[in-house]
Write a structure and sequence with these properties.
heterodimer; A: about 290 residues; alpha/beta; ten-stranded mixed β-sheet; two-stranded antiparallel sheet; elongated; B: about 75% helix; about 0% strand; globular
């Protein structure tokens, strides 16, 4: 009835053609929006959560390995946003994502305390390493302590590539410089503002040194000509945490589903999958201690 | 050199085997940019025609704004739209951040000024005579406008294609508002960035070749139109 009437009005041109045109454009825009969503979310799951994570868990392929099992079991789709830890935390604070898998423990705990996040667990760990050119101009291969190695690189004015993107690795690097008592970096220090993969690639090209997480390095080893020059120092421990955005701060967030993902990662099955995940014969991540913080 | 040659060979293998991951990205890229260019055309051509048919002195200020927007750096557009649609922004409740919709929005924002601006210039340079003729023949304003549009269709097509070329080749803005989520918001350009950082050069080159091929096809069609479908259209 109503539609018929509307059509008649348009047909008789009682309404100015411009208005008709505008209406048509609006209808097309609207249907585009709806259509776009359908094109994109073709798999039949209507429930999805957004996971902000570090580039390391993504680039290493761990999530590609684990998430299908979760999606199968719970029928919840996980959409992954690989960001630096700093940006991931900001996204969580603003309520733009539902769950986070990041590695900057002190910042994470601070934000849990401030009430932005809940249900945080130490989900897994690996370690940071210092990589550099095979010929090792700064001679850090002989050094066991990170502090001394960093001093040797900077004081010898060798190239050091820093991620400089507020990621977990970057914040680790900054704390290492602080521990080494270095605040004046000189010419050799270059802050590139990119993810771990790109930073390793730049390090390779410039024959410099950089701090990287082991997982990303192993994942990219084949395409690079940099070697592990320093590993095993206790200060290089790399803890990953998983946590949900506080539903009291952002009521639109999918807390229930986020909690299921956390439960999955902390379950025996999830922890076993983390241990089992190997790349080129090497274990990338070790299961966490299942402690809640 | 070795890596280069091997990469290109692998890239062609991926393209001809219709690799599903590659196809998914190409289809999404074409869908998003296609939608954006359709919307930009539907709004931009009428608006540009209207502006082009008005005397030049009266549109000076609008022109300057348009030209500024035409040169808008995509990442700035991305940043602006991001701040609008993030949960903490004014349009946050819509929850469209990190969806293809957000990418269409930002691409319309980038393509629309180009379509409007180039349409305006085309109409202004070519439409005057047609307009006068149509008016002399007693056509109503809307009909006059329609005639003018039809007569300048080659230039208008140029405007639309330029807009399309800009947005499908764009990477910064769609990365910011789309987030490069696999299977949802990963388009050709953002995939190239990611695959390069992961060292998967084959896939990155493959996407690059497809992107170039798309431009080649578009330009061939354009060329044919401009030649008026002559004997050697390509």
């Amino acid at each position: 009835m109503f539609v018929e009437k509307l059509l008649k009005i348009f047909w008789n041109q009682k309404i100015p053609p411009l208005f008709t045109y505008c209406l048509l454009v609006l209808i097309i825009i609207f249907s585009t929006m709806v259509g776009c969503e359908q094109v994109a979310s073709a798999p039949a799951s209507n429930e999805f959560i957004l996971l902000a994570t570090t580039t390391s868990t993504y680039d290493s392929g761990l999530l590609d390995y684990m998430l299908p099992a979760f999606e199968e079991k719970y029928g919840i789709e996980v959409r992954v946003l690989p960001k630096g830890t700093g940006q991931a935390l900001e996204l969580g604070k603003g309520g733009d994502v539902d769950v986070l898998l990041v590695h900057d423990r002190s910042s994470e705990l601070k934000m849990v305390e401030e009430g932005f996040f809940v249900d945080r667990y130490d989900v897994m760990f690996n370690d940071f390493i210092i990589v550099g050119p095979t010929k090792d101009p700064a001679g850090i291969k002989e050094i066991d302590e990170v502090k001394e190695a960093l001093k040797a690189i900077i004081q010898g004015n060798h190239t050091f590539i820093s991620r400089g993107d507020n990621s977990g690795t970057h914040s680790m690097e900054l704390s290492l410089w602080e521990a080494a008592g270095i605040s004046n970096f000189g010419e050799g220090y270059k802050s590139v503002g990119q993810g771990m993969g790109d930073t390793l690639r730049i390090t390779d090209e410039q024959e410099g040194y950089t701090l990287t997480d082991r997982a990303t390095y192993i994942a990219l080893k084949e395409t690079l000509e940099v070697d592990i020059l320093l590993e095993g120092d206790q200060t290089l421990f790399n803890q990953y945490g998983i946590m949900a955005v506080n539903p009291k701060k952002h009521s639109h967030n999918k807390y229930e589903s986020a909690l299921k993902l956390i439960e999955f990662f902390m379950s025996e099955e999830g922890q076993q999958m983390i241990t089992d995940y190997k790349l080129q014969g090497e274990v990338l991540f070790f299961p966490g201690m299942c402690l809640k913080y | 050199m070795n890596q280069f040659a091997a990469g290109i060979i692998e890239a062609f293998k991926l393209i001809f085997s219709l690799d599903p991951y590659l196809m998914e990205i190409v289809i999404l890229s074409l869908t998003v940019s296609g939608m954006a260019v359709i919307i930009s055309t539907m709004i931009g051509v009428p608006l540009g025609t209207y502006l082009g048919m008005r005397p030049e002195e009266k549109t000076g200020f609008i022109s300057r704004i348009l030209y500024t927007l035409m040169g808008m750096p995509p990442v700035v557009a991305g940043l602006l739209i991001y701040m609008l649609i993030a949960r903490r922004g004014p349009l946050g409740p819509l929850g469209i951040l990190y969806t293809p919709t957000a990418m269409v929005v930002v691409q319309v924002f980038l393509a629309l000024p180009i379509v409007v601006g180039l349409t305006m210039l085309a109409i202004r340079s070519q439409g005057k005579e047609v307009e006068e003729t149509a008016l002399t023949l007693g056509a109503a304003p809307i009909l006059t406008a329609w005639t003018v549009i039809r007569e300048s269709k080659v230039s208008l097509l140029g405007a639309i294609v330029t807009g399309f070329g800009r947005i499908i080749a764009e990477v910064g803005a769609v990365m910011i508002v789309g987030g490069n989520i696999q299977g949802h918001t990963r388009v050709m350009t953002t995939a190239i960035v990611l695959e390069t950082s992961k060292g998967n050069f084959e896939l990155a080159i493959g996407l690059g070749i497809i992107l170039l091929t798309i431009f080649f096809i578009i330009n061939s069609v354009m060329y044919r139109f401009q030649k008026g479908g002559g004997r050697h259209p390509w």
